[in-house]
Amino acid sequence: MNEPLVIAGKAYASRLLVGTGKYKDFAETQAAIEASGAEIVTVAIRRTNIGQNPGEPNLLDVLPPERYTILPNTAGCYSADEAVRTLRLARELLDGHSLVKLEVLGDAQNLFPNMPETLKAAGTLVKEGFQVMVYCADDPIQAKMLEEIGCVAVMPLASLIGSGLGIINPWNLRLIIDNAKVPVLVDAGVGTASDAAIAMELGCDGVLMNTAIAKAGNPVLMASAMKKAVEAGREAFLAGRMPRKFYTADPSSPTSGLIGS
Q1: What is the pTM of this model?
Q2: Strand 131-136 vs strand 153-156: parallel, antiparallel, or unpaired?
Q3: Which of 172, 214, 231, 250 registers the highest number of CB atoms within 10 A of its CB?
Q4: Which residues lie below 8 Å from residue 135, measured CB to CB, with a gap of 6+?
């Protein structure tokens, strides 16, 4: 029941990964992430200071790398070249850190991934020794291609980034999960705790989210709810749900030995 999430050979007790953007300040970021129980936190290198801007507030002061695995990401990149340059910078800033999250976007409005550029960037990064977790479309074929390139985790979207629409296509997710030999984590689209639980019940290895927590009415309380939802969904998946029975009732209590029968 307590089997850890293993990514790139490292074990994590929490299967909830969280982002660090969209909070009102670093104090709220810190409080929410502590409430989430997350051990991996993702940081948009193009938007957040982790040392590249001396003299400005540094996120690592409230989320120290000694306590959290910092996962630099390429949010805001629209080409393979941009993404690769960004992660090379991140590796320098984090003293050779190699675990990264790749995302190459195709459209500024819907933030859907540009899969040809994502595949291109993944190939370059893997060859350079990066351990790549990759945001991708919920396409089983392309997810398998990313795994075969050498990505350490595939992260299909549940729905559009920041939409909060939940899991639009559970069947594609199941196809990806059933064919993957690396961890599969839902990335993007989770809106509330039930969405996270459903992702885990489907068999996902974990869930990454940011907006669902940061833009909740009470981010710290929502972070706590998401922690519980991921744990409950994982336990339900391991337990195995009862079969669905259409048009057939099955009483919960025994039907034999009733008084008067």
Answers
A1: 0.89
A2: parallel
A3: 214
A4: 73, 101, 102, 103, 113, 118, 155, 157, 187, 188
